[in-house]
Amino acid sequence: MQTVNQTSEGGMYCTSVKAGERWRDTAATSGSIRAEGALLSTEFSVFGPGEIREHPANSVGEEVVAILEGEFDIDAAGEHYRLVAGEAILIPPREPRRFSCATAKGVLYRAAVLLDANPARSGAASRQPD
């Protein structure tokens, strides 16, 4: 099993996440590529068959999750969804969430508001108004 490793590049003001060729790699069966700014976290996650990842209540802010490849069972805020590639879900803040891959391989894109937002932690420099 090949694991996808984190890769991001920081410019003066922006951080790019080079995930495309890694999550499309057929040998990559599990792992994540993540970048965090002052207020937002983004992540590409590759799942193997039946792989489950959970996040408890109060650990994640409001989040959008898009299915890029495969099919997932998603439990969030006490509700259950089966989503396929091309679909997305908006999950309210501070709710537990669980992602389970229902196919041989699945890829999620996640973008979440950080609950403990700290501008000093930004992966990219803050741009100041002129």
TrEMBL record:
**What InterPro entries is this protein classified in?**
Cupin_2, RmlC-like_jellyroll, RmlC_Cupin_sf
Q: Which Pfam families match?
A: Cupin_2
Can you give the residue ranges of the Cupin type-2 domain?
Answer: 47-105
Lineage: superkingdom: Bacteria
Name of the featured protein: Cupin domain-containing protein
The upper taxonomy is: Bacteria, Pseudomonadati, Pseudomonadota, Betaproteobacteria, Burkholderiales
